Amino acid sequence: MSPKITPLALLLPEMAAASAAVNLGAPWGLVRPEPAPTRFHPVHGAHIRVDASGTRATRVESFAHGVCFSREPLAPGQVFLVEIEDKELGWCGHLRLGLTALDPASLPAVPEFSLPDLVSLGHTWVFAITRHHNRVPPEGQAEAEAVLPRRPPALLEEPYLCIEQFRIPRDRLVGRSRPGLYSHLLDQLYELNVLPPTARRSRLGVLFCPRPDSTADMHIVINGEDMGPSARGLPAAQPLYAVVDVFASTKSVRLIQLEYGLPSLQTLCRLLIQRSVVHRLAIDRLHLPRDLKDFCKYE
User: Fold this and answer.
1) CA-based end-to-end distance of the chain
2) Angle, in degrees to the nearest 10, between helices 8-20 and 265-276
């Protein structure tokens, strides 16, 4: 039997109520436009190929010379979010992510590695993503206490990720595996952050949050979870570019565009469809176009 889905007309009042309840907050209020779509900078490592759209970066040989930058400096609270698209066996190490105050266009040559080469140039903060990347302990909190395992919040229970003064919709921050034969038994992947940080389809982002003393904190987000301030004291008054090092076992990444204000009608419809089915495989039995089904299951 096909899952029962409430007609869209009956869902619109619920969707409108959900939108009205969202408190945008000052940083992303109506007086400030959303940031432009993110793209990769034309300046990059020698082994990187960026597609025509500027949203996919692939290392075509070796394991190094994979450093990429954002085309524009990031706005405060703007997440430069990438999804791991392809991996390459045989190498040790994974994606590296961070920020730099260096203008990529001013570099005489892009360093072979982000760590330590680019960092050694100064004004650059980059961290290696590991298989078991743990939350960075907040100030005054013991490290052992900070890394205790915990159940990540469900997307439908906590749809916004709060990082200092910013609220970011969590929906697109979370990477989702491709559903398989037994997905109905493991469908917590649908709502929970359970993908390993370095797995295919994992989503990793970096942003900075200004502080009253004119400095900024850098945060790394892994599948919808804030890892805490990875670096403090960044120069908030200077342009800060994202750094993505497509290193070693990470072969290709693509950029994910986020919504910072009210969720789009497309996003709200998807969340309601997801909430109305038993598990992701049930979406295949709905009388919907294939592209829409894939969007509901994977994106």
Assistant:
1) 26
2) 120
